[in-house]
Each structure stands twice: as structure tokens, then as C-alpha cells.
Amino acid sequence: MISLPSVFLKSQDIVNFAKEMADVCQPNDIHWFDGSQEEYNALCNLLVLNGTFK
User: Fold this and answer.
1) Which residue pairs, CB below 8 angstroms and at least 24 apart, start in 32-39?
2) Whole-number Å distance between alpha carbons of 18 and 51
3) Shortest CA distance to 8 belongs to which of 44, 32, 29, 25?
4) What span, in angstroms and rounded, lies between the C-alpha atoms of 36 and 40?
5) How many Å apart are CA 30 and CA 24, to the nearest integer?
6) What letters, b where the CB count within 10 A reaches 16 and e where it falls short, cover 4-21?
7) Most buried one in 19, 26, 49, 51, CB count within 10 A?
8) pTM of the predicted model as reported, rounded to 2 decimal places
9) What pLDDT, in 10s, does the model give residues 2-53?
10) Inter-residue contact 40 to 46 (CB < 8 Å)
11) Which candidate, 37, 29, 40, 30, places its Cα nearest to that of 9?
């Protein structure tokens, strides 16, 4: 099951594409990026914790 994107996403075509790809790829989770500084910081911290960033 795919979660619905935040309100920032206005294109139903993108939502439909993501649903199709989720059906094919069966991901555990889907993250809808919003491009915020908070999101960037969280992703960088995750990459550091996993050893991708130093």
C-alpha cells in the first residue's frame, strides 16, 4: 500500500506513476520528498548514521 503524498504534490499523473511503480517494485515504504531544510537535515543525518556520509 502506498501512502498519499503531501498536499504540495498537485500532479495526479505523478501519483499514478508512483502507484504503478509500487505495484511492480513492492517497496516497504515510499517517501514523498518536499525539499524542506528539515527534510534535508534528516536525510543527511540518516546517511551519516549509515556510514554513507562522514
Assistant:
1) 32/3, 32/5, 32/6, 34/6, 34/8
2) 28
3) 32
4) 6
5) 13
6) ebeeeeeeeeeeeebeee
7) 19
8) 0.58
9) 566 666 777 888 888 888 999 999 998 888 888 889 999 999 999 999 999 9
10) no
11) 30
Nearest to 2 by CA among 25, 24, 32, 22: 22
User: Whose CA is closest to 33, among 1, 2, 3, 6?
Assistant: 6
Answer yes or no: are the C-beta atoms of 28 and 17 closer than 8 Å.
no
Integer Cα distance of 36 and 9 in angstroms: 14
Report the pLDDT value the prediction gives residue 32, as an integer from 0 to 100. 82
